[in-house]
Write a structure and sequence with these properties.
Number of domains: 1
Shape: globular
Number of strands: 17
Largest sheet: 8 strands, mixed
CATH topology: Double-stranded beta-helix
Mean pLDDT: 96
Bound molecules: succinic acid
Strand order of the largest sheet: 1-2-3-14-6-16-5-4
Number of helices: 7
CATH class: Alpha Beta
Length: about 290
């Protein structure tokens, strides 16, 4: 008889642990369907006690979809689809990769649908990841604000993370290799409220790391509205928070949540492998 698969919520807003699946044992279609359903229902899914080498993580990632482009961040040797998200114990700058609220690579024309992060080494404390439900954030806006946002488009760019002027900053990070270039200055316009590609549910799609303006707005007009949306969309009651153990593997839906990593583990090493699943061009939500 097979192991029972269960899903256990970890917070009121988003996030669940799926028990009973060993990803190293080539999950069958029903197990993958269970993970996909949980991801759509909860935005974030964690599987504990997994032991995947990079090739196995890529194989699992492909069960969720083809790989997304991964710009700027160097992949691990021999496996172009895997990036190592590492902060060394010697790094004392109080920054960690992904440390500002963001939806992964939202500056791409087709931002990733999902990201998969596998914990290889974790600090004794700190280094949690926090996700915020953007479907809930949208739902909690007043009807007046919802209708004001309809039709608005955010301007997304990697300029504040990966433009060449940021190379000196990346060079101080011992654990990761990032190669900045001028393509980071490009901008991309996406709807402020997107319809999820599978569920059709509306979700806010702006984030403090990559959304640098509102299309058709002067900067001084866009800033107050974006500042409100950044604060609202990351309200604590829209979040779940995960304290990592070695072997944890988290999957999140970048179309439904945004996330950040806590940089509060100076003096300790944290090492993860990430794979990234391709997504679609965000479609505007029509109420
Ligand atoms: C990321 O933004 O992909 C990294 C998140 C984390 O390290 O917790």
């Amino acid at each position: 008889m097979g192991t029972t698969i269960t899903t256990e919520r970890i917070a009121g807003a988003c996030g669940a642990v799926v028990h009973g699946i060993d990803l190293a044992r080539d999950p069958d279609d029903a197990e993958i369907a269970h993970i996909r359903r949980a991801l759509l229902d909860h935005g974030v899914v964690v599987l504990r006690d997994q032991c995947l080498d990079p090739d196995q993580q890529v194989t699992f990632s492909h069960r969720l979809g083809p790989p997304s482009p991964v710009p700027f961040v160097q992949s691990i040797p021999g496996n172009p689809e895997v990036i190592a998200v590492v902060r060394e114990a010697t790094e004392a700058h109080g920054y960690t990769f992904g440390g500002l609220w963001h939806s992964d690579f939202s500056f791409l024309p087709e931002p990733p649908s999902a990201s998969i992060l596998h914990a290889l080494e974790v600090p004794p404390y700190g280094g949690d990841t926090i996700w915020a439900s953007q479907t809930l954030a949208y739902a909690r806006l007043s009807p007046g604000m919802q209708s004001m946002l309809a039709g608005l488009r955010g301007v997304h760019s990697a300029v504040n993370a990966y433009s060449p002027r940021m190379q000196a900053v990346h060079d101080t990070f011992a654990g990761m290799a990032v190669r900045t270039d001028d393509s980071a200055n490009e901008t991309r316009v996406h709807p402020v409220v997107r319809a999820h590609g599978e569920t059709g549910q509306p979700a806010l799609f702006v984030n403090a790391q990559y959304t640098i303006g509102l299309h058709g707005f002067a900067p001084h007009e866009a800033k107050p509205l974006l500042d409100f949306l950044f604060a609202h969309s990351t309200r604590t009651d829209f979040t779940c928070r995960w304290q990592w153990r070695v072997g944890d593997l988290a999957i999140w839906d970048n179309r439904a949540v945004q996330h950040m990593a806590m940089a509060d583990f100076t003096g300790h090493r944290r090492a993860m492998h990430r794979t990234t699943v391709a997504g679609e061009a965000p479609l505007a939500y029509a109420a």
